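Lab meeting, item 3. Inverse folding demo.
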C-alpha cells in the first residue's frame, strides 16, 4: 500500500511511522529541521549544512521516483542511463540520477513547447 505524504508541512506521528517503516529517515530529518521536531517551527539551532549552492531542484515526479528506489533498483536505473552505479553512496547516487532525470524531463518539456509553437505558427500561416 502506498501513501502520499506532503513533506512541505510538519509530519504527523503517523506519517513519521510510515516513513520510518520504509527507511526514509532522511525525509523525517529534513522535515524536522524545517518545521521543528514537534511541527511548531524550525529548530532554533539547525545542523550546519552545505551551502544552498549544492541544492538541486527537481520536479516532484522525479523526486518521488528516485526516493522510492531501493539500492538495487537505483543501481539498475543508473546503469540504464549509462551513469556510474558502483559504490555505496546511496545519497550521491540518488542525486546523480535525479539530476539526470530532471535534465531529460526539462528537454522533453522544451521539445513539446517548441512543437506547440511550430504548430501554432503553421496554423496561423499554413503556407509556411
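The presenter then showed the designed sequence:
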Amino acid at each position: 500500500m502506498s501513501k502520499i505524504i506532503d513533506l512541505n508541512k510538519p509530519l504527523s506521528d503517523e506519517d513519521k511511522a510510515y516513513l520510518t517503516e520504509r527507511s526514509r529517515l532522511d525525509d523525517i530529518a529534513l522535515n524536522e529541521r524545517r518545521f521543528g521536531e514537534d511541527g511548531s517551527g524550525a529548530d532554533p539551532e539547525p545542523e550546519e549544512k552545505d551551502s544552498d549552492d549544492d541544492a538541486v531542484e527537481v520536479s516532484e515526479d522525479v523526486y518521488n521516483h528516485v526516493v522510492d528506489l531501493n539500492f538495487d533498483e537505483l543501481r539498475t536505473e543508473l546503469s540504464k542511463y549509462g551513469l556510474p552505479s558502483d559504490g555505496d553512496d546511496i545519497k550521491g547516487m540518488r542525486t546523480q540520477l535525479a539530476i539526470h532525470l530532471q535534465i531529460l524531463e526539462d528537454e522533453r518539456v522544451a521539445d513539446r513547447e517548441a512543437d506547440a509553437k511550430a504548430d501554432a505558427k503553421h496554423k496561423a500561416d499554413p503556407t509556411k
